[in-house]
Amino acid sequence: MIFSFDLLFQAIIYGLIVGSIYALISSGLTFILGVLKIINLAHGEFLMLAMYFAYYLFTGFKLDPFLSIFLVTPLLFFFGAFIFYLFIKPILKSPVINQVLLTIGISIFLQNLALYLFTPDFRTLDLSYSQKTISMGKLPIGVPQFIAFIVSISITLSFYWFLKSTDLGRSIRAAAQNREAAILFGINVDRIYLISFSIGAACLGVAGPLLATFHYVTPTVGLNFLMTAFVVVILGGMGNFLGAFFGGLIIGLTESIGAIFIPGPGSLSPIVTFIFLIVILLYKPEGLFGRRLR
Amino acid sequence: MRTWIESKASLFVLGIFAFLFLIPHMFTLSSYILHILIMIFYFSYLSSCWNLLGGIAGQHSMGHSAFVGLGAYTSTFLLLKVGLNPWIGMLLGGVVAALAGLFIGYLSFNYRLRGLYFLLITIAFAEILHILFSNIRSLGGASGLVVPLKEEGLINFQFSSKVPYYYIILAMLSFIILFSYLISRRRLGYYLVAIRENEEAARAVGIWVINYKLLATTISAFLSAFGGTFYAQYTYFIDPSTALGIGLSVEILIYPIVGGVGTVLGPFIGASVLYPLAELSRIILGAKTTGAHLMVYGAILIVIMMFAPRGVLGLFDDIFLMRGGRYR
Questions:
Q1: What would you measure as the largest C-alpha separation in chain A, in angstroms?
Q2: A285 and B111: CB-CB below 8 Å?
Q3: What is the block-wise mean pLDDT of chain B (328 residues), using blocks of 10 residues?
Q4: Among candidates A101, A120, A294 on the partner chain, residue whose Cβ is nearest the Cβ of B305
């Protein structure tokens, strides 16, 4: 095995970049899980749609993906609201397994809608700055990756601020912690649920275009990100926003550093993530940063 | 949970199964129709195995492909390497899967994982196996294993016609349905239902919760593995993504919930309704466009979960007994 500190450093940088995107995607998932207690298995497909929006806005209207964020995010917000009203709201009180199956249904539908509309081809954006790099010390970092890192970190942190310091944010946290108590304090929980689900989807409206600048788009792209996002959410503690942020970075680092140490063509490296998941589930199911729930 | 159909219809069900056994005698079916029926029975079988743990005991596993895959790989690998008879391989596969189930169950239940947490840990275990098997060269890697051709006959579990496979899987299905029926009417079944409904209360009245959950997991895993061997012998080919992938786990879980989770006949009814519907939409839409038929499949799932949350059997209940559609 060829090992050098350059390689390790490269892995750390790459891990942080990917991790920041994971953090953003997982924030959306943990938002929905924490507030509505719904396991949204269609989260990956929402991300896939956001990536396709960014892709077609670029190929059709020459709109830069970093600018199309401002269009795709509201789009995903309203898409989230639409899905919530139509499908999620009626089954909020159903057994967990029914909710799981319903979101699987939505996921299957959206994935195949994409297959039907966009074909299974792998698509990549051909941006003028795709191959440009900036150097940090001796190491080159791709420009799209670098911007994606900055944007997703700042978005995730500003969400954290929003939850901590605004009235709406406080109401959301109240509804997540204790639904009945929140109702007693005059919080319109149904509205909070709607907003939370939509914000959860809107996170992907940011993550999708960012990801599309350096990651291929295909109808099944969501699945891998969904699995990773779940690991991040568990790691950070369900519904814990800051937990998802650090969890995302940790998983990003684990994957990229793990890839150096695991021999073979790299197809074995996702195994690290799943072992991580099992260990966390067994020893600290409330997450690294959470209080004990049970 | 007895539904209306089940309380009225044990004779009726017996009749249906007798009829199913006679079908290949009475009609000459095209091999396509036979294949559809075999697949319906196959998924009904696996879903019924899942239902022992997920339905009756209420521990929703989303990693049952691990047990199916272990069964398929054990028998096929031993057949390839040492020429072991697939029937013995089937039994050994069951033992391997049961041990895996015991291990997963022991870890999860000792650490008191349930609900969503149990669901996630079963996914994780199945995915680890999936990734491992895709990378182990002696197990064929990602391209899988091909079952070697032997002399045709019951002893070698290989037939040129589909009819023997039809009988074998129908017998397996009849067995699991009878088995579920017997369990649900006996002490073990009542214990498992008690655990599903309220674990603390079950513990309080003296049920050894962890042991009974482990028992359900082990039985379910052991029997699921048989399905894996059947599939390998039927298609002569297994690969990690079809035998161990999350897609299979999801499909196994869909049918019982669509049919009526925790009921004896639910998995069979779910598969009998959903599989042909999916196949029909594939015939109608699949030729023209990719993806269209699975869109229909997803839509059907959504509709069933929204309007018949207790599955098809529950729907019958509501229609015939005019009860409110509340899930118990």
A1: 62
A2: yes
A3: 62 80 80 92 96 91 94 94 92 96 93 86 93 87 86 86 92 93 89 90 90 95 96 93 90 90 89 90 76 84 87 77 46
A4: A101
Going by their DSSP bridges, the two strands A133-136 and A139-142 should be labelled as antiparallel
**Do residues A130 and A153 share a domain?**
yes
**Quick one: A106 and A235 in the same domain?**
no
Mutate to test the interface with B, among A41, A101, A283 (most CBs of B within 10 A): A101
For chain A positions 23-52, those within 8 Å of chain B (CB to CB) are 39
Residue type, A288: L
Query: Is B270 within the bounds of a domain?
Result: no
Domain identity same for A251 and A142? no
Residues of B whose CB is below 8 A from A277: 120-121, 124
Yes or no, beta carbons of A98 and B327 under 8 Å apart: yes
Q: Structurally, how many domains does chain B consist of?
A: 1
Tell me if A282 and B292 make a contact (CB, 8 A cut-off). Answer: no
Domain ranges, residue B121: 15-245
How many CB pairs (< 8 A) connect A and B? 133
Based on the structure, what is the number of domains in chain A? 2
Q: Does residue A249 share a domain with residue A197?
A: no
Higher pLDDT, A42 or B286: A42
Q: With both helix axes pointing from N to C terminus, report the angle between B246-259 and B116-135 in degrees, rounded to the nearest 10.
A: 140
Of B44, B49, B38, residue with least CA distance to B71: B49
Same domain? A207 vs A159? yes
Q: What is the span of the domain harbouring residue A141?
A: 28-219
Which of A166, A187, A219 is at the close of a domain? A219
Question: Is the domain of A225 the same as that of A212?
Answer: no
A271 interfacial to chain B (CB closer than 8 Å): yes
- Rounded to 10 degrees, the C-alpha dihedral B290/A110/A278/B77 comes to -10
Question: Does the structure's ipTM exceed the value 0.95?
Answer: no
Query: Which has the closest alpha carbon to A235: A30, A42, A43, A40?
Result: A30
B273 occurs within a structural domain: no
